[in-house]
Write a structure and sequence with these properties.
The structure is a homodimer.
Chain A: E1 8-13, H1 18-29, E2 34-41, E3 49-52, E4 55-61, E5 72-75, H2 79-91, E6 95-98, H3 114-117, E7 127-129, H4 133-149, E8 151-160, H5 167-181, H6 213-226, E9 232-239, E10 246-254, H7 260-268, E11 273-275, H8 287-290, E12 296-304, E13 310-317, H9 321-340
Parallel strand pairs in A: 1-2, 1-5, 2-4, 5-6, 6-7, 8-9, 11-12
Antiparallel strand pairs in A: 3-4, 8-10, 10-13, 12-13
């Protein structure tokens, strides 16, 4: 358990990755009370330096003994590294906020989006999981609707940016694009097929049921976060040639009747949500506009007449910020607030 | 009514556009029995020349008297030009196959995808309508499923390429991409927002119900082609930074139970469909692979457990070929075959 302090020793594991860098930026932007920042990465990246609060902080090599005196460890270095090093961090006395999929479906690990289920943080036993980027954006918007009208079914189609895969994928999109515009062949390393000027219905690996792990994360994580196993969900997750922000076309059916106007009113008052919805004036959320924003944007809210109590929405969120780094830091903020009030 | 001939005078209206050029290519590729090819376009493009069967054909200026001796007129110059000039072509004795939205929902005009409802061609009174590009790809795949298990509801999310808008939109995507990779500002002329590295949930104009015309085309045209007003449909149409081919995530509910394996078997035998579905080997349809292909490709066929008799599919078709030019030429082929058998 975290002890109350004025400032905390915070570790960022995977500090040189796309999400890790964003975590460092957000800790500074939100003036998180950091006494000491410990940056950790694999051997390949150790030795790099990152700016934090005007200082140049060296990145150390991640090891089991890296967590001495660390109060809060933000992990974003993939599920394998979380499985290997998070228990060591907890043993050293740190609370781990893990951005990987390693512990998300573990019944003893709370899976938290602060706007939705901050109450779950208190039940942690050393590890708190950050949901998948495509799940976070969606649940922030859907929870207020679920509370008002009970969502029975969700059909999700995602348009996910390459930054969700990491920095190498962003480089691959740029390089492939340059090659194609110069009539050269493309090289594919990160993805199994060309991503430039193409859409890949393939994110993470395929399971025996024909769905990808990414699609099943949307299904299973949403149920866990909503604490509602009865909600029925299906998903198609698609990678698109966009650098940053995930867009999602979401179709819902609710138990109670609720109109698009009522949903707009509810979401306008919801934490972490911006309603951006005046399509006749060409106003709807766009990946290029939401990049760098903290809130989840929603537009194209309209009644779906093809089913009783149906509705369509278009949701866009910054997958590196709210979908990953920001959500983790928000969990840390709740954690220290709870600690101070104990 | 078309009179039986060995070869026909064929006009292509909008010959210099993205679809018009493809029509000329396909007439040649499929050895359509053309005695004389009449190429027509607006004043701006008149005078250009296009290759056809080794000859260089000049593009003439479209006028009401352009259709003397024309047997079949393929129109792809926008709804306004179709409304203005198609009646003149019919009056001159031509059968018009119109790729615009002008006559599609006219009860007296058959709306035809030959693999689905070729029988409707016979009822024409001078004009036959070619459906919208995003509708054609979907109905070719869904009709055999509808026949086997009766589709009750469809939730569609499209990933539509810029060639659906035309050649200027393809140039805009290329130019914006070059600008961004050179850290220059982008210019937007064709679309209301940047399309490079972005997704626009906006195709065609917005209606009062919050849907775009493109989305309602998917709803209304599918019902008309299937001759089934009871089928319930909702759609989200999205423009993506892809040059050619439309991809679609399609969720269906059927009345009868049918498994993904049964659907795969039915579609493997269906005309105009290629089942391309072995995801664990990274085999699924992709826009870059389907470009230039005549068939509609389908993959990611999987049972949707969130609803009784649910199924998800991923459909990709070449919007310029099967979605427009090829479908129009196929209608013309049926037309002359019917004529010869009368």
């Amino acid at each position: 358990m975290l002890r109350k302090k004025d400032k905390y020793v915070v570790a960022v594991v995977g500090a040189t990755g796309a999400v890790g860098r964003e975590m460092v930026v957000i800790l500074e932007q939100r003036r998180f009370p950091v006494s000491d920042l410990v940056l950790l990465a694999s051997e390949r990246s150790a030795g790099e330096r990152l700016e934090f609060n005007g200082k140049n902080v060296a990145v150390g090599k991640l090891a089991r003994d890296s967590f001495k005196d660390v109060d809060i460890a933000l992990f974003s270095a993939g599920a394998d590294r979380s499985l290997e090093f998070a228990p060591a961090a907890v043993k050293s006395g740190a609370v781990v906020i893990d951005n990987s999929s390693a512990f998300r479906m573990d019944a003893k690990v709370p899976l938290v989006v602060p706007e939705v289920n901050a109450h779950a943080i208190a039940s942690h036993a050393g590890i708190i999981a950050n949901p998948n980027c495509s799940t976070i954006g969606m649940v922030v918007v859907l929870k207020p609707i679920h509370d008002a009208a009970k969502i029975k079914r969700i059909v999700i189609t995602t348009f996910q940016s390459v930054s969700g895969t990491g920095k190498q994928a962003m480089d691959e999109l740029a390089q492939q694009t340059v090659s194609l515009l110069n009539f050269r062949d493309v090289e594919t390393n990160v993805y199994p097929h060309q991503i430039a000027f193409n859409c890949l219905p393939h994110i993470d690996s395929f399971l025996d049921n024909g769905y990808t792990k990414e699609e099943m994360k949307l299904v299973n994580e949403t149920k866990k976060i909503f604490e509602d196993e009865s909600i029925r969900i299906t998903a198609t997750a698609v990678r698109v040639p966009v650098f940053r922000c995930h867009s999602e076309a979401v179709n819902i059916e609710t138990e109670k009747n609720i109109s698009a106007n009522e949903v707009r009113a509810i979401l306008s008052a919801a934490p972490g949500v911006i309603v951006y919805d005046d399509p006749k004036k060409n106003i709807y959320p766009l990946a290029i506009d939401v990049a760098g924003k903290d809130e989840v944007y929603v537009g194209r809210i309209r009644d779906d007449e093809s089913v009783p109590n149906g509705m369509n929405l278009w949701i866009v969120s910054d997958n590196l910020r709210k979908g990953a780094a920001l959500n983790a830091v928000q969990i840390a903020e709740h954690l220290i607030r709870e600690t101070s009030s104990q």
